[in-house]
Amino acid sequence: MLKRLDEFKIGETGLIKKVEGEGRLRRRLFDMGVTPGATVYLRKKAPLGDPLEVTIRGYELTLRKSEACLVVLEVKEDN
Fold it and tell me: How many Cβ atoms sit within 10 Å of the Cβ of residue 52?
């Protein structure tokens, strides 16, 4: 199932399928390691949903909701 990162619930994990957006914002996300194929774990979410803290490539990263909505992931189901 595909979902945007800003729609994730705390504790969910997903595999990045694509990063939308263009220009400087897209380049900034890529520079931070938000690239297709990376695994993302949602650690924390602020009370109003902005910002979000994720673990990606072994480090913690904080993203704004406006950035998180550009990241499309495939949700990993827990077995």
Answer: 22
